Structures
1.
Amino acid sequence: MRDIAAGTIGITNYAASALGDVVYVELPALDLEVSAGDSIGAVESVKSASDIMTPVGGKVIATNEKLEEKPGTINKGPEDEGWIAKIEVGDAKELDGLMGLEEYQKHTEET
């Protein structure tokens, strides 16, 4: 029996601030099989539009349907109630290559 890792995909506070007011979110389809780096949807704001990329491969198991009617939820809590999708991770080893919180904060301070 293998452990199945699940993760939440969204944008960070830093990214939400850079985007500005979000006006539209395109969510991925449930059960969509994806590979790391695939586009699974899009976020549009008054400033720009950006693809939502998945950092790991797997299968989309949930989407935040609240964002379809209230896309601004991303601006209010991008790392909380503004999550975009949940994914069943296909290979948990891919998680090892992701940045941790402190590493990400350092990265955003440098840019």
2.
Amino acid sequence: MIQIIKCVDRIRAPQGPATLLYYIPSYTLLSVNMNWLKQQVAHVAGTQEPIYGPSAVQSVAKQAETTPYTELQPQDLRWTAMESTCVETQTFYLMADTGHIGMAQVIYSNVAGIRTTCQFNTKVFYPDHKTPSLWSSDALDAYGFDERKLSFYADGCAITLSEDATSYSVKSAVNEESIVNITVSRTTPGFQVGTNGKSFFGTDPQHPWGSMRHAFWPRCHVEGSIITKQGGIDFKGRGVFIHALQGMKPHHAAAKWNFVNFQSPTFSAIMMEYTTPPSYGSTVVNVGGIAKDGEIICAGAANSAQHTEIKGDPENEWPEPGAARFLWSGKTDAGKTVNAELGGDLGQRLDRIDVMEKVPGFVKTLYAPQQKWELKIRLDGEEKAEEGILFSEATFIS
């Protein structure tokens, strides 16, 4: 602890297009935790945080040691809609029988409790790997939630959870280049790792200053279409739904991400892994699971994503992976050991996105091809292998 005597009235972020002021009351004697103060400066200014070390992350993996996962209940699908800095998303990943890969996503973003915005994003990849991918991103007006915060609404957009909490209706007419009308219905229970799916950030575990949470519907049936200017795309097929909340600045929580979505006739394999910045000890947190219709085979935090080959990008310094290996480990509800593996050449990437490309190196996402991989799963000593479609993302933030 340090003593500050009437020496800080306000902290000003670096001058720029959006200068923010963070006010600290001018008490005659103010007792401040130094780590908290440093974090608040970084929080407001958007600068790199100081080094807190890995002990400042209370990973959900600790919860998973005693409770690997819990099945989602309707209340677990509520929007948090924090009034402080956060990014909250509901994302629907779509794998059509036609070979198209799609994504529909709504984003709720709050900057320091000062400005809140919502955005609807649509992405479509074409099966010929030649047609340029479709990307639409539109600000939403007059956004809000139903009384229970289970459904989201805005002008021209609605994400509605069914009364029995087994399906979402996703509709958007905010962009004529991608008119969305799909229904995503889960065919197995949803899950969150541990008891609440959350990892916490902060030097005082009792009073964390940030959090990260993911909740999954790992295996879904999809009906409906996305209408583009070139015509309608039938998205009947399989899908995944993920509700995520980053209760802090995203680049303070994670420096890189790996996302895996594998769907086969029998199995679904889902993984979300992030590595914190050095300020939190470059700690790796991995959540995911294996499911089939009607059953979560296993889920938890004992998984890993490995880039077994780095081919790089000739146009920049992005560490683009050329091959990867993804591992899951857990137990069934009956206590039987489960191990699963995906591995192979990632091939030529589908796309790359440089978010804030005017700020070099800020957010970079690489989309791997939708290609056929084989999932090998060993359940209580018996091994099965099944071919399916893999969609993966690698994201680097600096």
3.
Amino acid sequence: MPGKEDEGQEIVKWLAGNVSRDIFVNIMEQYHPDAHVGKPKKASERLRALESDSVTDSLETGAISPSTQASPALRYEDVNRPISKDEISSVQKAARTAGLWRFCDVAEHGGFNI
């Protein structure tokens, strides 16, 4: 997932230490935002956010203007982008460092790996 490479690094270390260094690993890079990701939040989600103490305090002190509270935020903003090559590379490097060596690389023929 975008921005979650630290978790990916921990997962590959766990796999190497608790399952096997010979396990076949597919570090997938085809994630793209879909479904509800990047769409405006529902009114009920915006209301829950406005009801939180921190937002209420900010409204009372004037830190948030009424126009800010009316603008809909996007759902799942933190993963509303594709994965970068640096993120993929950092997880692959952690996997190799942990001793994993069997990777599902992109098939040269453009089809599926079997």
